[in-house]
Amino acid sequence: MVENDEDCAEVLVQLAAVRAAIENTGKVILQEHLQHCIVEAVEDGDEAAILDLCEAIDKFMK
Fold first, then answer.
1. 3-state secondary structure of 28
2. How far apart are CA 6 and CA 11, in angstroms?
3. What pLDDT, on a 0 to 100 scale, did the predictor assign at position 62?
4. Is residue 8 situated within a structural domain?
């Protein structure tokens, strides 16, 4: 869009849409991970999985 000399405001709108799509995808992945992997890890007593999840959340939220 920039190379095609599109309006800057339109470029910003598209960037916001991409950001929202990425964040929503991250939420879906996190929900699936919690519902399956983390539940299973807790049932198996795997505390490392919880720590790994916390680290992943911290990285995702930055």
1. helix
2. 7
3. 77
4. no
The total of structural domains in the chain comes to 1
One-letter amino acid for residue 38 of the chain: I
Q: Which residues contact 34 (CB under 8 A, 6 or more apart)?
A: 53
Domain assignment of residue 34, given as a range: 20-61
Tell how far CA 17 is from the center of its chain.
14
The pTM for the full model equals 0.68
Q: Output the CA torsion 41→34→37→27 (10° steps).
A: -150
Within-domain flag for 40: yes
Question: Quick one: which H or E segment has residue 23?
Answer: helix 8-32
30 domain residue, yes or no: yes
> Model confidence over 3-61: pLDDT tens digits?
888 899 999 999 999 999 998 999 999 999 999 999 999 999 999 999 999 998 898 88
